[in-house]
Amino acid sequence: MRFLFVGDSMTVGRAGDFTWRYRMWRHLEAVLPGPGGYAIVGPRTTLYEPADDAATSDAYADPGFPAAARRHLAGWGEGWLHMAPLVGDAVTAAGADVLLISLGLIDLGFYTNSDQTAENVRAFLAAARAANPRVRAVLLPVIPNVRAEYDAPFAAECARFNELLAKTVADLDTAASPLLLASVPESYDIHADTYDGTHPGPTGEHKLAAAFADAMHQAWGLGGLYRY
I want to staple 45 with a disulfide (CB 3.0 to 4.6 A). Which of 11, 16, 70, 164 is the partner? Predict the structure, then answer.
C-alpha cells in the first residue's frame, strides 16, 4: 500500500515541525509493519523555510524521521487549484494507491470561492483516477481556523465548501476507486492545537493523523485505530 500525502501549509509544515505526516508515519509503522506493508511516496520531501519563503528545509523536529517517509505532495500556499494539475503525474510516478488529502483553506482564503473550489476537487480526482483507476482517497474537510472566527463571510464559505465536499465524495465514490470523507476532530481547538490559529502544533498534528487513520480503519479495515 503506497500512501501519498497531499496538502497545503498544514501538511508540508515549516522548519522545526514534526508535521502530521510524521505522526501518520509513526502510526503506519505500528499497524502495517514489515517489508511490503506500506510505503510513503511523493515527489517532495522538504519543509517550508520562512527565511527563504520556500520549501528548502530538512529540519524536521525529529531528525530520525527517515528520508523515505518524508515524501509528499504538499506546499505552502498551494491548494486544490494548484494540486489538480500535479496529482496525475505524481500518482503515476509514485504508483500511489491511497491519497490522504488536506486542502481547501488556502483556496477559499486567497484563490477561489466554494463552488470553484469544489470544481477543482472534481478535476483533481479525475486526474488521479486517470493515473490510477483504482486509487483510493481520504479527504479532510476544511478544519477550524482563526480567520473563520472573525470573518463571517469566510466562515460561511468554509462551511459551504465542506457541504459541497461531502456531496462530491458521495457522488464520486465507487467500488473500484473508493472515497472517504474524514471527520474533523470534535475536540480540535485552534487555541490549543495550533501555534497560530491555523497551523497544527503537536496535539493538532496527532488529531489530524487520527482523523485519517481512523477513517481508513473504520471504513476499509486498513491498519488500526490511531493510538498515539
Answer: 70
